[in-house]
Amino acid sequence: MKYKPISFWSIFLGFLLIYSQSFGQENYVKPKLTNNESWSLVLIPDPQTYVKYDRNVGVLNLMTSWIRENVDSLNTQFVLCTGDLVEQNDLLNPDGKAANQNSKQQWTNTSEAFRKLDNHVPYVLATGNHDYGHVSAEYRSTQYDKYFSPEQNGFNAKALREVGPSLNGKSSNVNAIYEFQTPHPKKILVMVLEFAPRNEVIDWAKKTLAQPKYENHDVILLTHTYLDKNSNHIKTEGYKIGDSNYGAAVFEKLVKPSKNIRMVFSGHIGEPDKFDGHLGFRQDKNAAGKTVTQMTFNAQAMGGGWFGNGGDGWLRYLEFLPDGKTVKVKTFSPLFAISPATQNLAYKKEKNQEFEFSLD
Known about the structure:
Residues 63-269 form the Calcineurin-like phosphoesterase domain. The protein is α/β, with parallel strands linked by helices.
């Protein structure tokens, strides 16, 4: 039997593969809390590109399955999503390029992914511009309530406290307030507001938070459009929905006058394969002199741009330490973490991706 000599390059490439896989394994640490008494929330960025192609739906399912599997180890109290739950709200004939799933399929894809969390952890989902109108906020009508209702997740139903003004004369939970008792003594309200909220909604939110029963709560505001990539409040955008308030107006009319809004989370922005184009962060003082931390986190154009895989599975988990002040932010991808060959890519380590801030 003749033996073929093994070339130097074969040996080198084999060594390189083994080394790279070993390196990934040695450096990968499964997400965990830094303090056993901490709690966390998980932030999911705009999922629209995961659900507009059938090939990408599995990534969103992987993300929500990972959240469910780690609820206990991360002591996750609730999950937030920044909106644009679909690419087109009411489109029957996708062109196959911008999307190959029609709107019914897209809404179903998103709903089924989040239903993996039902009766495991509460989740609050914002509505984005793509969740209204025909394709993108041509008018203020959404199918959100058809696919998401508080009673489908017992945890959500238990936490729901307030429902905002009706939408086109119909009851809707696109504007709502949820109450959570975290492991630390402070109670938290999560207030979710529609895309570019109407003046009526802003007024409702302001009056509701001013009620004595909520004056000692810390409030998290969740909405879709708020900061741009330079961390400035967005002043206006060219949508046709009429009565609307973007980031600058929401800050001036609601966030700044409030005495208990402490955090604002949003999504919306992005640039193909440029993570910095998906991010925003700033801190300002509110009427009570308290710091309001405002964070925009998206990833939808990572992993191949607008027609790519939907965002490489990136999400964030925020750890709230027992001192009641320190919050640690980690940016993590269950997609990269699932294989030893890519685990070394599962965390973003840049200073605008892994950091901490303080609540005063």
